[in-house]
Amino acid sequence: MMRKISLTKRSALLGLLVFGVLLGAASAQTESVLYSFCAHSNCTDGVSPAAGLTFDQNGNQYGTTFFGGAGQVGVVFKLTPKGKETVLYSFCPHFDNCPDGQLPQAGLVFDQKGNVYGTTSAGGTHCGGCGTVFKLTPKGEETVLHSFGVGSDGFDPRAGLVFDQKGNLYGTTFSGGAHGDGIVFKLTPNGKETVLYSFCGRTNCTDGGYSAAGLVFDQKGNLYGTTTGGGAHGEGVVFKLTPTGKETVLYSFCRKTNCTDGASPIAGLIFDQKGNLYGTTVRGGLHNVECTNTSDKTCGVVFKLTPKGEEIVLHSFCAQTNCTDGDGPSAGLVFDQKGNLYGTAFSGGVSNPDNCSGSNFTCGVVFKLTPKGKETVLHSFCGKTNCTDGQGPMAGLIFDQKGNLYGTTYDGGAHEEGRAGVVFKLTP
To answer: How confident is the model at residue 356 (pLDDT cuts 50, 70, 90)?
Structure first.
């Protein structure tokens, strides 16, 4: 069973990403592994978290794994501050065809009553398993609020959800919709779905296509997000969507020669106090020519987008030999109180490449970026034998009140030959 999981997860990981000396003196950072997955027989505790974490009011962390669990197709888990893991729900434990969902790729959100909400990229009751939106009570009772694949409502949701003030949920799907390239949807607390926008509604999909990212609201109730494809140059967009469903493309990537402005954003966005948007692309950047000619590199950028639509590349990855500054950021960003940005890159880093599975550059880093674009690598994964410190971070980070950073890696850890993933903590 474990070998089957390993081979399958590598194929799934390619599907997630394919559609997809340090810079300055590194700050003293200490990484500790809070939990290594596949610690239980048959990996019933989960395998390969592809999503980030969410805190409750008591400091417990909640997340999902892409594989593992009683049905081997993912779990929702809780992790105490001391590292005790509890599986709150295992998808498809006793069902045929997984009507309760399977393969969750995204993180979770809480409501005021302590229920958590999320998506699964597959499973459900329609079109052979097109994905779900689910609700999970504190007692572990799961309810499917919506099964995708009915008519033109979309399928394959890869991102998490956001609430509005009335308790409605909003999200995206990677595929489906009226034109086949994904949708933005709204879901009432009772599970009534409205398609707010179907991508590829314009000639040559200049409005974007294939959104793998979650959404963010502005103060007026407009939604902002990214698509990994489409746009004026075919390499993805940043878009704005009004509450009535009018879409505006704020930026189309690969506008510059060799995509030095970035290409293929697969992560969501964050605002600063001035209304600027920040995000990442998994490909492109100043070193894109080198990367596109090398199968084990993707490059990518961190970008800033002003309210007027001016894009500024704050950092182009693979600026250092062997991409020691990181390669292929597939996750969103988080601010500290001083305006510094923090994130992860799936590959690259300064660890011995021989420790990493797959290609020569699949270890990954946690990085810090100043407002002026100076990058510092805070941790390079696979620094320990067999990558017991983790490998391949796919998700973003969260802070606790003391300034510690927390995140997950898709691979690495102490179990399943170091290929099951970890939850980690990074202290200043």
So the answer is: low
pLDDT of amino acid 353: 56
Give the mean model confidence (pLDDT) for residues 394-420. 94
Average pLDDT over residues 180-195: 96
What is the band of 111 on the pLDDT scale with cuts at 50, 70, 90? Answer: very high
Instruction: Order across the sheet with 132-136: list the strands.
Output: 109-110, 116-120, 132-136, 142-147
State the Cα angle at 229 between 223 and 233, rounded to 5°.
105
Q: Copy the structure tokens of residue 85.
A: 């893991």
For 36-81, how does the pLDDT look when each residue is reduced to its tens digit (9 = 90+)?
999 999 999 999 999 999 999 999 999 999 999 999 999 999 999 9
Q: What is the pLDDT of residue 203?
A: 95
Q: Please compute the mean of the pLDDT values over residues 369-396 and round it to a whole number.
A: 94
- How many whole angstroms from its chain centre is CA 358? 20
- Residue 307, CB half-sphere, CA atoms under 13 Å: how many? 6
What is the pTM assigned to this prediction? 0.92
